[in-house]
Amino acid sequence: MRVMAIEDYGIEHLRLGERPVPEPRRGEVVVRLRAAALNYRDLEIVRGTYHTRFELPLVPLSDGVGEVVAVGDEVRRVKAGDRVAGTFWQCWTGGDFDPSAQAQQLGGPLDGMLGEYVRLDAEGLVVLPDAIGDEDAATLPCAAVTAWQALVTEGRVKAGDSVLVLGTGGVSIFALQFAAMSGAHVVATSSSDAKLERAKALGATATVNYRTHPDWAAEVLRLTGGRGVDHVVEVGGPGSFAQSLRAIRPGGQINVIGYVGGAEGLINPLDIFRRRATVRGIPVGSRQSFDALLRALTVSGTRPVIDRVFAWTEAREALQHLASGRHVGKVVLRF
What we know:
2 domains; 26% strand
């Protein structure tokens, strides 16, 4: 089978090669890939800038969809012919997150989805509804489940709440869509007026250009009548966290997800105390959250925002597009 693997760090070192088609072991299945999608984490792993370096060579990408073609002993949940997506954490089925799952992440340290076939734990799969196509479903395992976990599973967002989403990347756009699905008011930020117009079309009720308003927290407070928002989907990292704290209402929630604005910065815990803020880290989500998300998408008809689709062998070009920051929503690979 053909795979693309990281042989050394850097997008230019992502190489197309050949490997044997895997055989399923006990409790495992083999899936023939149909579509995959990129996340910021994948870009960092390929570049070698992720906070953890994994053993190379490594097949990257956590998100993919395909058809089960072989089933190992003692597998009961799925069968050959089922259309499935892998879960980001191969062993987190539900309940509280178990730190021992750290060794079971697809796309590092486990080989991921950038190949024609992949071997997966049968417990680390969801069966996909017919209503959600391959390319749409491929965008869900990391970014969409993260946004769902933050706002719905953990945040209990409800109609009438206000939600602040930072930027227009994958997690933020999913968060905008899920908040709008729940009847919440959404404030979206971006440095691009064109992207903000896109956010409005997706359901944002207010927008802030953070280049025009460098003190964007003050603008968010103005837009909410001085009250602040109930929820922040914080993907910027330490550089934006202080403003996120200022933008929430007293007792509001900040869901810490990423650090696209940089990993360096100072956070004063007294500011959290003064705002009576609930701050939680969101390590994607469980299989249970993924299943709940699929049910919601099936009923609501909401579908992911896909920016561009590349052939899977054009993964280097797709990663460069993701790195450019020009995208709105998800970048997908077709097999």
